[in-house]
Write a structure and sequence with these properties.
8 strands; single chain; 38% helix; six-stranded mixed β-sheet; two-stranded antiparallel ribbon; alpha+beta
Length: 263
Amino acid sequence: MKVTSFKYKNAQRLQHNNILLPFLHRSSKSTTALATIQHTQRTAVLTLSILLAFLMATSTIPAFLTRLFRPFTTAAPRVSLNPEGRSTQDFPPNAQRCTLAAGCFWGVEHLFRKHFDGKGLLDARVGYIGGDTSNPNYRAVCSGRTGHAEALQMTFDPDRLTYNTLLQFFYKMHDPTTKNRQGMDTGTQYRSAIFYHSPEQKQEADEVTKKANEQWYKGKISTEILEAGQWWDAEEYHQLYLERNPGGYECPAHFVRSFPDLK
């Protein structure tokens, strides 16, 4: 009975690949066919592992495979009372926070730093926000069960860089029309969202979103505008990921679109 059940489960898996074979009969021929298939699968996995090891050793692994095999950790991120990771003495007294979710946080951080470092962006941290659980880690967030979004929390000097400028760039650098998805990355953790830190930020987020929806995206924006709740820093290896790993995965939806300024 156990053998039959085992064969049936394997038949279900093979059926999804359109290679279902008639090996459910209790016969030596069926058993041999199943053993052959399992051997082939193990060989394929071993071959792929060797290939990946070679590619990583020669630094030629394609970017999309880097994403598939990005590391997990079971260590919980720390709650960030100062999420920017710097002493607040380094910031001007009027420094503000801007928290945005736009898909994989590696590319989001990379683009914002590339365009605004030295121009009023004081610091940035990638992390998790908008969820229902405490101490989320990357593996849990990737499951989609914690409710958190991968996000970027920035500290900026409003005398040099405005919140409006950051929001307009946000709508240029990702696709806000694909609900819970950016490029090939799918799940609620990749949703588009603005997490405001004050009533003034909410008002500006509403206004910029309305204009971008009308002038740039033809009414298709699905971005959420929510009050910022508890922020959790992501694990340290996620911080400045693309700076530390040049050529690492970047979501194909992350590029700056050539839109005219909003009116």
